[in-house]
Design brief:
Blueprint (H helix, E strand, L loop, with lengths): L1 H19 L10 E2 L2 E2 L1 E2 L10 H14 L9 H21 L7 E4 L2 H16 L5 E5 L8 H10 L2 E5 L9 H7 L4 E7 L11 H10 L3 E5 L11 H4 L3 E5 L10 E5 L1 H6 L10 E3 L6 E2 L13 H15 L3 H19 L5 E3 L9 E6 L4 H10 L2 E2 L1 E3 L4 H7 L4 E5 L6 H17 L2
Helix pairs in contact: 1-11, 2-10, 3-10, 4-5, 11-14, 12-14
The structure holds ligand C6P.
Length: about 425
């Protein structure tokens, strides 16, 4: 009994620590329209803690030079910082080696890299690629492009009315023609958390490679790529408290080694001649040109920041926010939640009567509350739910119940205006 109490006390202490994190984010300390800013658009991009801002500024002020190219002091410092960030990311997601961590500009580029390189080398017109109706366009269009080029077929797993993947249909779609399964960990438009263990196990049974779009998972969960046993995992720095223009593709080294380069240029080669060009070793084979060095350093600092967080307390905090927001939202007349999966990350996607989502967004913005409105780059999701657009409030570690109250007040204001 006392150990249960002890662990509850530890958790409530850790929860208090989560609530205290808000002060680390300078952008959240400002007013907009003379009201304190409430930022509920973290699924589009999270705010950055001071530690990340400081790391980027320090790098730009004192350590900037190109990486891997110079013998001089600044180039060495810059290379150390850049490679240091790679090692932090490797350790954080438990990848086997730094060869498996490719820096990209973000999730979009990571998926395009796999689709172009793996697709070109592996797909034929008798093969199939399986995605889902829940995907962000970044995990649909790159596959459409490579299927057009190779003649492979693109199939999509449908959703249930709640916005969960229909796993029976997934079973039906898998066959010995399936070469690649590409699926999101968490839906940006619905918040649905997909049962990756089952999805990956079924892909393995079909002998298909599996790539996970983790853009919306990394701000909420600690990822262990070896425990997941996925082949590729893609994510973006700016959705996990790091800078924009930097992201990661994790890939198993045996697969990356066998894949052709994605882009040609400096850094990705060992030797170049008109007779023969030899490509660099991993991960550099996939990092053509001068990379986003301070972006990588900033992402390394975001990883340091996340490493200090108690993820059990964070999960409890975000689940409390989502259930409070859901309870308060459905009291409003005309409230409809889009996406009611059993397992959801802290995303509330909704419509309110006949009020257009863009009007809702504009009105709540005037009340100091930032939400996203539109199709969220997930048009098949909108088609499934037969809506043109939704309003989306997405919560991160720095939000609290007061933020939810301000959102509800803003939505009440919209109802008054449209009454
Ligand atoms: N979703 C949103 O508001 P980039 O732009 O490459 O960092 O991430 C693309 C991307 C890929 N997959 C998922 C699941 C995503 O949510 C996103 C970005 C933002 O929902 C912008 S559309």
């Amino acid at each position: 009994m006392s150990s249960v109490l002890e662990s509850q006390n530890t958790l409530s202490h850790a929860h208090a620590d989560i609530l205290a994190l808000r002060k680390d984010f300078p952008a959240l300390q400002q007013d907009v329209y003379e009201k304190p800013l409430v930022y509920l658009d973290s699924a589009a991009s999270t705010q950055r803690p001071q530690a990340v801002i400081d790391a980027v500024v320090t790098h730009e002020r004192t350590n900037h030079a190109n990486v891997h190219r110079g013998v001089h002091q600044l180039s060495q410092r810059s290379t150390e910082a850049y490679e240091g960030a790679r090692e932090k990311i490797r350790a954080y997601i438990n990848a086997g080696s730094c060869e498996e961590i490719i820096f990209t500009s973000g999730t979009t580029e990571s998926i395009n890299l796999v689709a172009a390189s793996l697709g070109k080398s592996r797909l034929t017109d008798s093969d199939e690629v399986v995605v889902t109706w829940m995907e962000h366009h970044s995990n649909i269009v790159p596959w459409q492009l490579i299927c057009e080029q190779t003649g492979a077929q693109l199939l999509a797993v449908p959703m249930t009315p709640d916005g969960e993947l229909d796993l029976d249909e997934y079973d039906q779609l898998l066959s010995d023609r399936t070469k690649i399964v590409a699926v999101g960990h968490v839906s940006n438009a619905l918040g649905t958390i997909n049962p990756l263990e089952q999805i990956i196990a079924k892909a393995r049974d079909a002998d298909a490679l599996i790539i996970i779009d983790g853009a919306q998972a990394t701000p909420h969960f600690r990822i262990d790529v070896q425990a997941l046993d996925c082949d590729f995992y893609a994510f973006s720095g700016h959705k996990m408290f790091g800078p924009t223009g930097i992201g990661v593709l994790y890939g198993k080294s045996s697969l990356l080694d066998a894949m052709p380069p994605y882009q040609g240029g400096g850094e990705m080669i060992l030797t170049v001649s008109f007779k023969e060009t030899l490509y660099n070793t991993l991960p550099y084979k996939f990092e053509a040109g001068t990379p986003n060095i301070s972006g990588a350093v900033g992402l390394g600092a975001a990883i340091d920041y996340l490493s200090d967080i108690n993820f059990e307390a964070l999960a409890q905090h975000e689940s409390d926010l989502l259930s409070y927001a859901t309870t308060e939202f459905i009291k409003l007349p005309g409230a409809r939640i889009i996406g009611t999966a059993k397992d959801k990350a802290s995303v509330l996607s909704f419509t309110l009567g006949d009020i257009h989502a863009h009007d809702l967004g504009t009105i709540v913005d005037r009340e100091g509350v930032a939400i996203r409105t539109g199709h969220h780059c997930a048009m098949p999701v909108m088609e499934h739910f037969q809506v043109a657009a939704t309003g989306r409030a997405s919560f991160a570690l720095y939000n609290n119940r007061d933020d939810v109250d301000r959102l509800i007040l803003g939505l009440q204001r919209a109802l008054e205006l449209f009454a």
